[in-house]
Amino acid sequence: MATILPFRGLRYNPEKIKDISKVITPPYDVISEKERDDYYELHPDNIIRLILSKELPGDDQSNNKYSRSGEFFDTWRKEEVLKEEAEPAIYIYAQEFTLSDKKYTRRGFISLVKLEDFQTGEIYPHEHTLAKPKEDRMNLMKACNANLSQVFTFFEDEDAKIASFLHKASEGDPDIDFTDIYGVKNSLWAIKDKAVIEKLIAQMKDRALFIADGHHRYETALFYRDLVNGTKKEQNGNEDSPADYIMMMCVSMEDPGLVILPTHRLARNIENLDPEKVKSSLNEVFDVSDLGSDCNAETFELKLSEDAHKHKIGMYIGESDKKFYILTLRDERLLDPILTGEYVEWKSIDTGILHGVIFDRALGIQAKNISKSENVKYNQGVEDSVAKVNEGEYQIAFFLNPTKIGQIKDIATKRHKMPPKATYFYPKLMTGMVVRHIPGT
Q1: CB-count exposure of residue 336 (10 Å: 0-12, 13-18, 19+)
Q2: In sequence order, what are the residues at sequence separation of 6 or more whose Cβ sits closer than 8 angstroms to the Cβ of residue 149?
Q3: Which residues are CB-contacts of 94 (< 8 A; sequence separation ≥ 6)?
Q4: C-alpha span between 334 and 364 (Å, rounded)
Q5: What is the pTM of this model?
Q6: In the predicted model, what is the mean pLDDT of residues 324-340?
Q7: How many CA atoms lie within 13 Å of 400's alpha carbon, on the beta-carbon side?
Q8: What confidence tier does 90 reach under pLDDT thresholds 50, 70, 90?
Q9: Over the stretch 185-244, which tens digit does the pLDDT of each residue have?
Q10: Which residue from 44, 51, 60, 82 lies 20 to 30 Å from 422 (Cα-Cα)?
Q11: Is residue 344 within 8 Å of residue 259, measured between CB atoms?
Q12: Long-range CB contacts (< 8 A, 24+ apart) of 193-200?
């Protein structure tokens, strides 16, 4: 179960950085090239120079974007731009935000968590990972010997014991408090009271953790651990090393601020796409409801959200059609002969039904290859997706209701994986609130 520890985090020094909002970014994997350039311009000490450094002409194996990240990290520590905590701490991190005119607060804690192998441990993933992003993060981790951002996890807290504990422990003024470019208020408290820390460690020790965001970074940390430890384990027996731990943000799965948004899909390069044939094919498994040519995006989204538990998927076809449809699964048993083997758990989730039935069977886009496909794009907005279809950039769009947090837990506990981009946790954790150097490396 979860083994957590406090650590001496590195935080931006307020004596040198007057406005922390100018040095913080979202996670590296949601930053576009233009956004990266903007962050570079925003402040010379922006965390972007560590997490997503630029490639330059003349780069080689010894002098490259990773080595530059390592040099910036070493310099910022030496010059105390990033200043190490005087004593070990656990950090409570809260984000206040508004969504559809409703206010939320998501609160969790950042600590070290002992790494566990997925096959045997109690830390559960829900996504497949790709080799290239892991190679990228591994090169960065070796150059900096650090956890530059938190892996985001959630845990069961049905009696709200941990949530209440964190709320009480963060009643005072925060050590960091700013509003980011998305309008989200970010607050961080460095908790150094040993009694408080020990109580949290005790309350977490019997709980499993489920990865929300950061699967590639977690698996990279497992490779890094094995690389760094090498033969040390044989010499030191079962003694833990700093590389056995990773920096994590842990949030109660019952937290009302643990919000998941849907990620929609666009598809292109489908040969001989015929709207009538697509609808006829889908009619074998779904009730296909035509919303008419005058249905707007707002009305469509409202209809899609009604009775969402019935496995409803929205569709918009381009070509000569240009209309919204609602696909409602007739009976989950119809999926039994279709979703088998490693895909059997997909019957319970809309993303699984979309990928395994609609993409694979109706459109000829193989579910197992979707993560590598250039023909499928992921998008958050309905109107933007429709515009891309109407402009001919894509041929068809599919719209989903949000995945439920319990569905992630259920599939992950069975050690199965969900389709790519099945979840979009909002808001994203900001990078640079606290950084962890891995000592002895």
Answers
A1: exposed
A2: 27, 28, 51, 214, 217, 247, 429, 431, 432, 435
A3: 105, 106, 107, 170, 174, 186, 187, 188
A4: 19
A5: 0.94
A6: 94
A7: 25
A8: very high
A9: 999 999 999 999 999 999 999 999 999 999 999 999 999 999 999 856 555 667 899 999
A10: 51
A11: no
A12: 196/90, 196/169, 197/6, 197/88, 197/89, 197/90, 199/165, 200/4, 200/90, 200/109, 200/111, 200/162, 200/165, 200/169
Q: Taking residues 319-337, what's their average pLDDT?
A: 93
Would you say how long the chain is, in residues? 441
| Of the candidates 401, 2, 4, 14, the residue with the CA atom closest to the CA atom of residue 191 | 4
Eight-state DSSP code of residue 395: S
**Residue 246 has what pLDDT?**
98
Instruction: State the Cα–Cα distance between residues 202 and 162, nearest whole angstrom.
Output: 11
3-state helix, strand, coil in the chain (%, to 5): 35, 25, 40
Are the CB atoms for 174 and 183 separated by under 8 Å?
no
- Rounded Cα–Cα distance for residues 47 and 53 (Å): 9
Query: pLDDT by residue (tens digit) across 264-319?
Result: 999 999 998 999 999 999 999 999 999 998 999 999 999 999 998 899 999 999 88
Pairing of strands 286-290, 209-213: unpaired
Q: What does the block give as tokens for 138? A: 């591994």
